[in-house]
Amino acid sequence: MKALVWHGKEDIRCDTVTDPEIQDPRDAIIKVTSCAICGSDLHLFHNFIPGMLPGDIMGHETMGEVVEVGSGVDGKLKKGDRIVVPFTIICGECDQCKRGNFSVCETTNRKRHLAEKVFGHSCAGLFGYTHLTGGYPGGQAEYLRVPFADATHIKVPDGVPDEQLLFLSDIFPTGWQAAVHCDIEPTDTVAIWGCGPVGQMAIRSAILLGANQVIAIDCLPERLSMAEAGGATTINFETESVVERLNELTDGKGPEKCIDCAGMEAHVLASQPDTLLDRAKQMVMLESDRPHVLREMIYVCRPGGVISVAGVYSGLSDNMPMGAFMNKGLTMRTGQTHVNRWSDDLLHRIEEGQIDPSFVITHTVPLSQGPEMYQVFRDKRDSCVKVVLKP
Amino acid sequence: MFHFSNIVRTKGDPRIVEGGPSLKRPEDQLARALGWFSIGLGVVEFFAPRRVTETLGVEGHETLVRAFGVREILAGIMSLSVDKNAGLWARVGGDGLDAAALLSGLTADNPKKGNIALALLMVGGIAMLDYRAAQDTKPQRPPRDARRKLYPNRSGFPKGIESARSAAKQIAAHATVGQS
Ligand SMILES: NC(=O)c1ccc[n+]([C@@H]2O[C@H](COP(=O)([O-])OP(=O)(O)OC[C@H]3O[C@@H](n4cnc5c(N)ncnc54)[C@H](O)[C@@H]3O)[C@@H](O)[C@H]2O)c1
Ligand SMILES: [Zn+2]
Ligand SMILES: [Zn+2]
User: Fold this and answer.
1) Is A250 helix (H, G, I), strand (E, B) or coil?
2) What CATH architecture is A2-170+337-390?
3) How far apart are CA A107 and CA B138, in angstroms?
4) N or C terminus: which one in chain B shows less Cβ crowding within 10 Å?
């Protein structure tokens, strides 16, 4: 089959690989009908997240049709079922899964010893991600083996197009969880850093959860226009002072709730000298992340407020203003998304017509053009916001 | 076909049968070569500055050579990173500094002035490669004033944004706890 394979920094190729096989009775194989490129894939493309090996298949936003099931799937899935595959592989049985903490499932990381060394404890296995999370082959491919398939799936009805459902795999629940983590109250201002696909979903989620005011921050006009279309007031951080504008828009109080949808690769700008220092340190491996957004959020957040982090951080972040964080009494909530905790509710909202996540798609191309699309998405060429690949 | 990366695959996971085309262009390979060259030269300058000054007949300038070594290493690391373009421009600038330093050593009484002339020639050649690579690896981000498509109609709310807002308000009015 064809698959997008990681070969090194900025080197992803559409290779021919052997087809996946059932390895365990709880496996299923799906024929992929749609998959997408995520901002997290860009961190891997840049080799900023340790633990990738040449030959790894990319992709964790995937849906398709079940073509084969193992003997242990126990009737929970059958051939012909249409499923969206959550990016977190879950067993459904461990203590964490029972609590709904699916992204920290205790069973599914098959390379748990690596994660235990680096993070202290293991987290769930993830598709198409680093070997710290199991090194499972991803879904930017024609076929995908879904391990623990009896639990790791979201069954979706026929009659709703792929484009509306695909993002249940990651970005829609990710934006949603980021907003839920804010415990939004009807008087709250929610400020969202980053208007990429995750930020766009967070904006819509904050509106659906009843925020009084949503403010979105980015520097790309096309993304800001999409944020505004979704109900946000926008700030362009290249031409305006984020802190000043946020204070203006909140009568000097600061936003009660702040969401990071930018992550470890904050833009490097001369007007934000900390980003220059972070970039330099990152290059000589003295720091793994560029946490400008975290610093800014802590600084501007209203005392007593919540910092919700959806953006991915990989290792060590320097110069965190812990004094402000502590004295302002802030709360930070974060995590890879517990996709299956939210997916039933979100599927229902899509079916009801409350939201149609396909609004974010700007490019749909065949899988074979995937490698070029990584560059287009990374460079924000052609006003690209979200790329869907068709195997 | 043999693919090195297949060696580390977990048993049963897909293996590469036939490699597809790479995104790497010749200029990316050149940038990489220059990056490693920069690091190699920097290491020599940093750890064996005496060898360098002796060859060029400019003994006593070891500290400067060391500093240049650090500069080479940093520019090399940058040229190997995703910001390779900045690294290559840093190298172009560094070539200028190298040339200036060499020229200042090109005095009539320097017995090694032949070596200096040779070194200048080399710096000139490398500078041309650095310049080429820097030109050819310009970031492909559209310039800030480029025309862009805007998406003012993509609300994502099929029933309109006001309906999404008011639905949320109704739920908030009915709910006693903010549990979801
Ligand atoms: N927690 C999860 O489970 C989860 C899931 C999916 C994605 N993510 C992460 O979410 C982040 C965003 O993903 P995406 O797909 O939207 O990626 P993206 O790269 O398209 O979006 C990031 C956006 O952040 C903006 N940005 C950069 N610096 C900024 C700054 N200083 N202030 C404000 N905005 C800034 C960029 O312009 C860009 O539009 C990534 O880090 C990704 O890894 C996390
Ligand atoms: Zn993702
Ligand atoms: Zn589990």
Assistant:
1) coil
2) Alpha-Beta Complex (3.90)
3) 45
4) N
CB contact under 8 A, A221 and B158: no
Say yes or no: do domains A2-170+337-390 and A174-334 share a fold.
no
Q: Which of A98, A96, A87, A130 is nearest to A111 (CA)?
A: A130
Which two tokens mark B78? 């940058």
Task: Report which residue type is found at B47.
Answer: F
Distance, in Å, from the CA atom of A159 to the CA atom of A301, rounded to the nearest integer, reads 43
ipTM of the complex: 0.93
For position B7, what pLDDT does the model report? 81
Residue B22 has pLDDT above 90, yes or no: yes
Structure tokens that stand for A35 in this block: 């998959």
Using alpha carbons only, what angle is made at residue A146 by residues A143 and A148, rounded to the nearest 5 degrees? 165
DSSP B1: -
Residues of B in contact with A7 (CB under 8 A): 5, 22
Q: Are A290 and A282 in contact (CB under 8 A)?
A: yes
Q: Residues lining ligand 1, judged by CB closer than 6 Å?
A: A 38-40, 42-43, 170-171, 174, 193-199, 217-220, 223, 237, 261-263, 266-267, 292-293, 310-312, 336-337
B92: distance to nearest CA of chain A, Å? 19
Residue B177, pLDDT above cutoff 70: no
Write down the domain spans for chain A: 2-170+337-390, 174-334
* B82: chain A residues, CB-CB within 8 Å: 9-10, 46
User: Burial, B99: exposed, middle or buried (Cβ in 10 Å; 0-12, 13-18, 19+)?
Assistant: middle
Joined tokens for residue A179: 């907003």
Spatial CA neighbour of A243 closest among A324, A327, A342 = A324
Q: Distance between CA A27 and CA A130 in Å, rounded?
A: 20
Beta-sheet pairing, A233-236 with A213-218: parallel
- Chain B residue with Cα closest to A210: B168
List, for residues A324-347, the tens digit of each pLDDT value. Answer: 999 999 999 999 999 999 999 999
Which residues are bridge partners to A215 per DSSP?
A191, A233
